[in-house]
Amino acid sequence: MINVSHETGLWRVKLNRPDKANALTLQMLVDLRDAAKAARQDSELRAFILTGAGDRVFCAGADMASTDDMQAFTRAPEWTEMSAAIAALPCLTIAALNGTVAGGGFAPVLACDMRICTPDTKFFYPVLKRGFLPQPADVTRMAALIGTARAKLILMAGQKLTAEEALACGLTDMIVPLAEFEDRLAELTADAMAAKPQQVAAINRLFDPNLSTKNIEECYRAAYQNDPSAIKRLS
Questions:
Q1: Which residues lie below 8 Å from residue 234, measured CB to CB, with a gap of 6+?
Q2: Which structural domains are found in the chain, ordered by start?
């Protein structure tokens, strides 16, 4: 249900359960987490792309039919482990949203650096309607990305955003026809794929607002020295 491929530092992970709108099961969370952890061990890692199968839905959220205890499922540590593993990747991470994102489908999406979506993509997180709480990391990341008020608009007021509305508030970064996804992804990853892995990791690390002077010096040493092992010191 999760397809993983990689070549020369470019990792591609696909939710491949189109008959169930790519809804997430516990095993899929584990597989996503493990894919991100495996990518992190790749000394050539430069880019990580997450997408879904089909042309209408990226992910319908948690698969409610896959468990007898939905409350326990929504509280499973694998949600946090999965999104944290993606967020910790020392490379460029892109969520290529082939369609609508709902509920728990936001967890891996918000953990990525950037998001592109199709013109027909919708964004909604109907937790109150279904009687559940969102993942804490989703709340934090969404508020940091689009502001507290807009995050509450989605999580508490139950609003569904169109692709254009999501672009306007920063929930997505580009609207791209699905047929053009591959070309646009090639453009977005071109600089990273042409750089040394440690340079990509160093720039990624510089976005941390809590870096010490020592940390910053490590970024420069890693970027300017021909030492592929430096990527591990930055991650």
A1: 90, 198, 201, 202, 204, 205, 218, 219, 222
A2: 2-187 (3.90.226.10), 195-234 (no CATH)
